[in-house]
Amino acid sequence: MNKDNFYDVIVVGGGHAGTEAALASSRIGASTLLLTHNIETIGQMSCNPAIGGIGKGHLVKEIDALGGVMAIAADAAGIHIRTLNRRKGPAVRATRAQADRQLYRAAIRQAVENQPNLRIFQQGVDDLIMEGDRCCGVVTESGLQFRSHTVVLTVGTFLGGKIHIGDVQQSGGRAGDAPSIALADRLRDMPFRVARLKTGTPPRIDNRTIDYRELEEQPGDTPRPVFSYLGSTADHPQQTVCHITHTNEKTHEIIRSNLNRSAMYSGNIEGVGPRYCPSIEDKVVRFADRNSHQIFIEPEGLNTHEVYPNGISTSLPFEVQIDYVHSIKGFENAHITRAGYAIEYDFFDPRDLKPSLETRFVNNLYFAGQINGTTGYEEAAAQGLIAGMNAARQVQDQDPWTPRRDEAYIGVLIDDLITRGTLEPYRMFTSRAEYRLMLREDNADLRLTERGYQLGLVAEPRWVRFSKKCEQIDSTRDELSSWFVKADSDAAKAIASRFEVPVQKDQTALELLRRPELSCEGLHELFPKNITCSDPAVLEQVEIQVRYQGYIDRQLNEVEKQRRNTDTLIPPSLNYQEVSGLSSEVKQKLIEQRPATVGQAARIPGVTPAAVSLILVSLKKQEMTRAAHAG
Amino acid sequence: MASDTIAAVATPRGQGAIGVVKVSGPLAQQVAKSITGQDLQPRQAHYLDLHGQDGDTIDQGIAIYFNRPDSYTGEDVLELQAHGNGFVLDQLLDTVIAEGARLARPGEFTERAFLNNKMDLAQAEAVADLIESNSREAARAAVESLRGEFSRGVAVIRDQLIDARVYIEAALDFSEEEIDFLADSELADRLTALNKSIDSLLSRATEGRLMRDGITVVIVGAPNVGKSSLLNSLTGEDSAIVTDVPGTTRDLLREIIVIDGLPVHIVDTAGLRETHDKVEQEGIRRARQQIESADHILAVREAGQGIDKDLLQGLPIDIAVTWVFNKTDLHEPPIANPDSLVSEIYLSAKTGHGIDQLRSHLKQVAGFTSTPEGAFMARRRHIDALQAVRQLGLSANEHVTGTGAGELAAEDLRMAQDQLNLITGEFGSDDLLGEIFGRFCIGK
Ligand SMILES: Nc1nc2c(ncn2[C@@H]2O[C@H](COP(=O)(O)OP(=O)(O)OP(=O)(O)O)[C@@H](O)[C@H]2O)c(=O)[nH]1
Ligand SMILES: [Mg+2]
């Protein structure tokens, strides 16, 4: 601890948002303190033991492209790794790994402990130190004061947590952790809008009591996908398999006859749960016509016997959980190691945040992660990275940075949160991204690493490697476009026979590559002298760029059309009451949400194109008035 | 500076001998070249042939090109002056849009002029007023255009589009949920059905048809109130048989009047009443059928009677109605209530008193208002959007049946939804996710 207990940035919370925030802040040179109530839980995966998936894998790659730690930890901990949607097109392809909890935690802990400029201290936080409307430090549960320029709060599920198992309730954060009641009360006193959300977990099961003989096996992919742009399969631990089982009529019958005992159906829960992750009670009630639901049996790690049966989260009483678990194939004699439960918690309406993730009401205070109404490690980590970086940039007197919607899923995530807010735990899906074809896992580095380098987030080794990849992409494209394949040449014949497509006219190899039958890797294998680069990532990138050119141009065109709105800032001083022509309903919305740019204003539901025009006219009027006064 | 190019017919529809199509934005010069076939000297009037998309001459007229910043909007601007005939102007506008411009929003030319420093501070309020009033007018006209058959057609298309998207997006975002619809032939069938619906609606509702066929106004009411007399009075001819016997008119009788170049079809129908006469029953059935496909209804009563609740009940709710109170020579009309929300017109088919008022009312109904943002423009916007949806739907179908590239089909349909949203209002990604979660059991 430094002498006067003073830091540039204090990050409260050691979860996925907190660790990325602390790492980002210290990477760009701010002296940073990470405060957590328990050092042992740093980097803990408190829900299911998996990283990535569709939309989420995209976030992980972006975090990696910006120098974050999540992908590296996922590679170090991944014991079953797959690429989802492999055949549906590059934009929706996504990496997903079952992660060993211990290995994951160890990898994060190691990164945090070895990070220059970063200190860790174990103590829960009860209060914020305020100076006017500025936050400048925290008070811990034992009364210690830590002062700083900026504070990032990433206290997630621990805010006002309440656990339900059937009709039994207890206060608590994630099972086993004490909730941060004092801090929750303190924040509730501030002008932030607070609401409640809910999420559930399934009962955990002892591996040794499951009969796997009849269950469907799901192996990882070969070749094995890698998360980090710096990683390789050599980083992966020993691999394992997953299994799939199903609920049946008997399971459903048990659940139906005990519905009134579920916390969800007895009216004890006020929080809103996610529609995409219904409890088993919900599934049985809402989809009564289905007589079976899938359960993925996810291993928790290489050195534990506990497994996570994904798909049967519940808030039924424990004895009912035992009954329905035993009705499932393979689980006939299963021993439950922990009961499933539903947890309710507070979140703060993210519409009270700026794009930098600084709060609107308290200066120098940033929120990231589940506190903003999101769910998922990846969503939390992404916000942490942005909040930590911007908290540090504020100390350094630099403008905040947030990626745009056309640059990154991180941009989509933050923009959705601050302009639309959320009614359920917010989770990323690729369908949320209107520029989906541009926001791919394969090009997250091309989209973000250069920017990350300028921001100081990306260290030299990553930059060197990235620069080399860019050069190879360029030179491979050059090779392809300057290689003219004549229709009846030997090359054309070789191509025709390898890919089973006729080459009927003279064209460059680049033009040929537009055909879906061809692959760049295949061309390299046939003609290693013409296409010299052998790096599969480079060859794949060139192929995707060539094949999607038309669609990507169309999206770029869209981006360009929006650009003027996106770039036009709305000064906080703009008085919407005085913008002529706006309907009172639209005024109300704009006053409530105070969009930072015209683009954001346009995305607020109910704000019409005409309203956007009127705002632009009003801004122009202000500018002209100022110019008139100056001149 | 805006990056897209906008276009509009700048003169009121159907009025005047000369019509002007204006284009502003980076594509203006390219548009000028393709329509005139020449590189125009800036700021000079050129009298020449104006060509359509297929290269045929649409009209002879004057083209003037202004390069930025010396133009009204401060951007590159092209002005095409042709004959004031609606057909010609529409074809010109079509050509401009095919070159990559889009229909301007109401007040957008002035907005651009202001934003590009072409106006002074004092004009700011006027600009805001113009945008506001024209948008309000456009919104009203859009509602007007979205009635009856057209509205029903659009609703079907919207449902079909959302349906297809639900299946594709679910397959992309939830691939582990045992719902891989991409491989399913049902998806291609859904897309085919979608495209069929669009084709059929477009063929029934294209702007060409509106110009050629105009709008249809149906006269309905109880027997003997003077429906046939009204038809005769409007056409100025003795086309319909008029007697004092209730139930005179049996069959539908169609006449056309032309208001400012736009044809208005007027259909006289059999008086609606309970009857045992077989011929009359058939006439009444035809009358009811005709009402369904009307753009506008004239419900006739005798002055002195109130609004006929029973008659009103029997009319489709989504077709606008004007109440016509006839025989004011016999009955004193009540004092007009200016706040009435119902359109009411008092007249005498016999003396002709009040017929002019009905004519100008019909003119409004037909979309000829003082601003360019009438019902005609609204329908035109709707049709443009539907045409874009159609293109995208075809392309999506190709992806699904061809390479099976789900994400490209999804992209086409997302853009189609953006277009359709212009007609039906916002349906965003969160709404779509809601549909998916409502239909499929997602979630492990
Ligand atoms: N005084 C007066 N009589 C009218 C007026 N309009 C119609 N009439 C008379 O009302 C009677 C019915 O007129 P029609 O035009 O045949 O009425 P209709 O509604 O077409 O009747 P059906 O075809 O039988 O349903 C005729 O005797 C007309 O001369 C009017 O404005 N004033
Ligand atoms: Mg008649």
Q: Give the domain tally of chain B.
A: 3
Largest interchain contact: A-B, 56 and 52 residues
Largest sheet of chain A: 7 strands, mixed
Sequence of secondary-structure elements of chain B: EEHEEEHEHHHHHEHEEHEHEEHHHH
- Major sheet of chain B, described briefly? 6 strands, mixed
What's the gyration radius of chain B in Å? 26 Å
State the secondary-structure class of chain A. alpha+beta
Beta-strand residue percentage of chain A = 15-25%
Count of individual beta strands of chain B: 12
Low-confidence spans of chain A: none
What's the CATH H-level superfamily name of the largest domain in chain B?
P-loop containing nucleotide triphosphate hydrolases
Helix content of chain A: 25-40%
Structural class of chain B: alpha/beta
Tally of individual helices of chain B:
14
Description of the structure:
- The complex is a heterodimer of chains A (631) and B (444).
- By secondary structure, chain A is α+β, with helices and mostly antiparallel strands.
- In chain A, the strands form 5 sheets. In chain A, strands 1, 2, 6, 7, 8, 9 and 20 form a 7-stranded mixed β-sheet that branches. A 6-stranded antiparallel β-sheet of chain A has the order 14-15-16-17-13-18, with no helix packed on it.
- Chain A is globular, with a radius of gyration of 26 Å.
- The mean pLDDT of chain A is 92.
- With 444 residues, chain B is an alpha/beta fold.
- In chain B, 46% of the residues lie in helices and 17% in strands.
- Chain B contains 14 helices and 12 strands.
- Chain B has helices at 28-36, 86-98, 108-115, 124-145, 148-173, 185-205, 207-213, 227-235, 278-292, 309-313, 355-365, 375-401, 406-424, 429-439, and strands at residues 6-9, 18-24, 46-51, 57-66, 77-83, 102-103, 215-221, 253-259, 262-268, 296-302, 320-326, 343-346.
- In chain B, helix 3 (108-115) packs antiparallel against helix 4 and helix 12 runs antiparallel to helix 13.
- Residues 221, 223-229, 242-244, 246-249, 270-271, 326-327, 329-330, 348-350 of chain B line the site of guanosine-5'-triphosphate.
- The site of magnesium ion has 4 residues of chain B, from helix 8.
